[in-house]
Write a sequence for this structure.
């Protein structure tokens, strides 16, 4: 009995179909992906359309925010723009009465974060009548 040894051949894997599938997936993801450049988003700030004025209540709290991020509570400038400072100023002005109406007026060039910080501090103190003031464009 004679046994012959066969030479083993290495199996070949056809890479052509694998490469085709990978390239098709690559093209699909490239086409379906949207690229957003957030630095180029333009935001137009709101302006009041009507020129009617609303009579302000006798007692109210005004928070003004300048373009540089300086806060003024009822016309008095705060020493810094930290949330604790704003909270202390609001507590002092309101004397603990969170039912007073509160108006936030921000410069058009003020950072959005400053307005959100003022709203957050007021909300945490329990103020529910918070409004944001708009200014008519003087060019119109």
């Amino acid at each position: 009995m004679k046994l012959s040894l066969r030479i083993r051949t290495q199996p070949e894997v056809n890479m052509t179909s694998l490469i085709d599938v990978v390239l098709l997936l690559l093209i699909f993801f490239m086409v379906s992906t949207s690229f957003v450049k957030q630095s180029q988003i333009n935001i137009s700030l709101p302006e009041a359309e009507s020129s009617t004025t609303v009579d302000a209540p006798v007692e109210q709290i005004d928070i003004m925010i300048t373009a540089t991020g300086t806060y003024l509570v009822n016309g008095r400038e705060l020493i810094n723009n930290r949330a604790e400072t704003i909270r202390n100023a609001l507590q002092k002005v309101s004397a603990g009465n969170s039912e007073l109406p509160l108006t936030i007026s921000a410069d058009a060039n003020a950072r959005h974060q400053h307005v959100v910080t003022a709203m957050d501090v007021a909300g945490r103190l329990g103020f529910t009548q918070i409004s944001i003031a708009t200014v008519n464009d003087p060019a119109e």
In short: The chain has three helices and five strands. The mean pLDDT is 80.
